[in-house]
Design brief:
This protein has 327 residues and is of the alpha/beta class. It has 15 helices and five strands. The protein starts with 9 loop residues before the first helix and ends in a 5-residue tail after the last helix.
Amino acid sequence: MPFADLLGQETARERLRQMVASGRVPQALLLAGPQGVGKTRAALLLAAALSCSAKNRGEGDSCGRCPTCIQIERRRYPDLLLIEPEKLQIKIEQIRQLQDFISLAPVAGKQRIVIIQNAHLLNLVAVNALLKTLEEPKTSVFFVLISHCHELLPATMLSRCLLFPFVVLARTALVQILSQHEGARDFSPADQAEAAAWAAGSVVRALFFLVPENRQWGRGFVEKFASLPQGSIRQALELAEAASAFEFTSELFFIIRNFLHDAILWAEGVEVEAEVGWQHEIACFACLGRLKLVSLRRELDLIENDLAVNINLKLALEAFFTGIISV
């Protein structure tokens, strides 16, 4: 698991390697950036670089072959704890588990490493408990927080972490990652290239769009969504019903968000070269005007945020879609 495995994030990769080589790794890091661009991968690579029994400390990297590296790759290393949200939040019980974990001496190495996925989903009680832990860190413990919405974290939490920004993956890097990914081996290079075009720099979404049926659904949805300004109430309600029944809600919002983004640019006079070929659709949709499009984008963000409190998605989309229809 050497840092060279982190593709498309050269700046972050080199900073991490240099910190390990110099022995100056902060005890709390925040890896922030879009979903699916390698943040979790980077956290595991850092854990390997810190723990590898065969590494060359002067190079600040891991060997990727020793038992420690293999265990970390499989997420079974005894001195590594990964915390993930449960039902869209990280709870106090999980932070207590973390505190118990770091209270013990390392088993296999010289330090213990805690990785917290989607740290912005820490609930208030969990945040306060974690803050107390970060205020008095042990020298043998490293924390790596991961978030694609780090602005939602309290300022007190941000002040205790060194921020590592991650960028959207370039399309060429994304295609390269897919060509090496175990989950993409059964798909042709043409499928991989098309999936990368849909994914907007995210490996997770590229894997979703590798499936031809998912791309077909996306194209069909965009065609119907783009026709709403000239459509009828019935069309809006039917589309809301179909969209709310779609299993992959995050991808649904991703498609709408990207489409609105391109439409806003078009309304501002920027001729967008949409990689998935929806130029005609966004040109027609941009007739709503910039102010209306920006308003729709904000409304979409509110609906997506409200998903955490179990709103009725079908009713929310009905209101959203009917609001697009030109009177």
